[in-house]
Amino acid sequence: MHTLSQLKSGELTGIQRLKISDKLTSFPLEILSLADSLEILDLSDNQLTSLPSELSQLKKLKIIFASNNLFTTLPEVLGGCENLEMVGFKSNQIKHVPADALPAKLRWLILTDNCIETLPDSLGERPRLQKLALAGNKLTTLPLTLAQSLNLELVRISANDLTECPEQLLKLPKLAWFAFSGNPFSCANVDTAFVPSVSAASFTLHNVLGQGASGVISRATWVDNTSVFPEEVAIKIFKGKVTSDGYPEDELQACLKAGDHQNLVRSLAQVNDEDCLALVMNLIPDNFKNLGLPPSLKSCTRDTFPTDFTLSIKHIDKMISQMSDVFQHLHANQVCHGDLYAHNTLFDEHANIIFGDFGAATMYHMLTSEQQECIQQIERRALFHFIADLLSVCNKEEQNSHEFNVIKQKINPAI
Predict the structure, then answer these.
(1) Over the stretch 374-407, which tens digit does the pLDDT of each residue have?
(2) What is the spatial distance between Cα 151 and Cα 138, in angstroms, rounded to a whole number?
(3) Which of 27, 78, 117, 338 has its CA 20 to 30 A from that of 374?
(4) What pLDDT does 321 receive?
(5) Sheet harboring 86-88: ordered strands across?
């Protein structure tokens, strides 16, 4: 985090990344003095409503974040930033997206949690677009020009007002991660009464185990334990009305509809109190750890891994077999996970995996048979990317092995 005083004093000359959160109501023009170096500008958590036309002077600017501000229109000046690739204006009050506000080199657009009803056709005329996050708006249609987005890999359109499945997305050749729950066309009233309901007062929360866009997972114990549940469990308490992936209620339903599988986090009960929506799950043993790390700003849609992290081809093959079985199980239950990644996967020293995080999951039993086949094909690409990512961290001495080449040949034509 930087300060205005640092900026005005010249202390930040030559920096590539600037982050200022200081209740700004206007853009500090001193930022323009960083034009020769600035690549990432983060103005999130301020009170901005506009950006000056001079912003285009930042010739090296690649990424701009302006989440949690007061914008009602996506600034047109963004379209004049010649090297701008990533635009993040989450949680503003944006209603209007001008056709000229989208930069020519756009790869990643985040407009989650705004008030957008329509998007310009120019969105589909940005050939480098890979990642599109639009959850939590008021969209009733999507531009037909998105059929031209041949490099689009990840789309989030959950929690909108779309009345028809956007056919222009279904046959995109690279789309692999797709979340579309919480729309009229994907409305799913699934009976989840088969999973017991308990009240929030039934358990005591302890340490936080992890958290993501949709909620916080904590270790918990029952106040009045019975033989029905394990003494210690994990509780995911959903937060907010809408997340970057959609409505918490849809995540809960999809998670329950997915059913039991030995490689899925097992759901034990649900909490539907007026002031608390939560999922009670099996507590995962301490020897399990994350298989991957989320995508970086550079990798965009692809997972990353810790430096020097490697896997044997034997373990990779075992993990692939388990994840393939999970894929078959989910789609047999007509659930699209939407976020099939290594970073949502836990593994132990024996290469046993546990897959979770249904934040982007969508039930698709209401779609036509042809649309369902497209959804399965989209997620199959995610599975192939998962496999390719595991191969990328295979032990170097095994990368020319017969087993490695057999696996590689299976996925190469598909991705």
Answers:
(1) 999 999 999 999 999 999 999 999 999 999 999 9
(2) 25
(3) 117
(4) 97
(5) 17-19, 40-42, 63-65, 86-88, 108-110, 131-133, 154-156, 177-179
